[in-house]
Design brief:
The chain is mostly helical and 85 residues long. It is built from two helices and two strands.
Length: 85
């Protein structure tokens, strides 16, 4: 009877340990997926902002820092236009 109780306790502990391992592994991968999804969304927003038709600069913010960006093709087109004058 003692061996059965010990075996049951060992099996329960083993099941709990494996369940915990798989849960941490799953949530770790899920967290990583969300982080990469956020990166892709940010990159998509920057690219969409850069592709505006009027070639206007746009601002990108990170905390308190701000930087203004413009698509390189727009600058090249402005240079080509000013060279012909």
């Amino acid at each position: 009877m003692e061996k059965q109780k010990l075996l049951i306790i060992v099996l329960v502990v083993l099941v709990l340990a494996l369940s915990s391992y798989f849960a941490f592994d799953f949530f770790g991968k899920y967290k990583q997926k969300l982080v990469f999804q956020g990166y892709y969304i940010a990159i998509d927003e920057v690219m969409n902002s850069a592709n505006n038709e009027n070639c206007e600069p746009f601002s990108v913010y990170y905390g308190e820092d701000t930087i203004n960006l413009v698509k390189l093709d727009c600058l090249e087109n402005q240079n080509l236009g000013s060279e012909g004058e």
